[in-house]
Amino acid sequence: xxxxxxxxxxxxxxxxxxxxxxxxxxxxxxxxxxxxxxxxxxxxxxxxxxxxxxxxxxxxxxxxxxxxxxxxxxxxxxxxxxxxxxxxxxxxxxxxxxxxxxxxxxxxxxxxxxxxxxxxxxxxxxxxxxxxxxxxxxxxxxxxxxxxxxxxxxxxxxxxxxxxxxxxxxxxxx
Length: 174
Fold this sequence. Notes:
The protein is of the alpha/beta class and 174 residues long. It has helices at 44-55, 72-81, 91-102, 109-122, 131-134, 137-160, 167-173; strands spanning 12-18, 22-28, 36-41, 61-65, 85-88, 126-127. Pfam families: DEDD_Tnp_IS110.
C-alpha cells in the first residue's frame, strides 16, 4: 500500500491596524512562538517593503484589517494585487473583543493589532472585496455620493422647514 503524505503549510497571519499616517502590522507564523511587529507608513515604498517581506516566507499569506474610512484602500489594493488573501474585521466585533480580552475599553494601535490577530485565529473575520480589483469602485463611489447628497438634502430640509413648524400653531389652525 502506498503512503500518501499531504503537507499543508499553515498560512502566515498578518493583522494590520490601519490609521491615517501609519499602520501597525503584526505577523504570526505557525511554528514560531513570537510575532513580528512592523510599522508601515502609508507610502508606496513601505507597502512594497511589507509585500516583499511577506513573500519571503514562502507560505500562503492571510491579511486581516479593520476598514477605517478610506485609509485602508491603498494598502488593501497593493496587498490584493500581490496575491494575498484579504479579510475584514468588523469594527464593532473588534471593540467588543478588545473589551473582553483586556478588560478595558482603552485602545491603542499595537493592542488592536493583537486583537485582530486573535480574531483571525478564532475565525472571526469577513471577506474583503477590493473595489478596484473587483471592478465595483464606480458603484461604491456612486453610493457614497448618494449618501452625502441625501444627508445634505435632509439637513437643508430641517433647516428650512423645521424652524417654521411649531406643533402648537399647527393644532390651532387645524
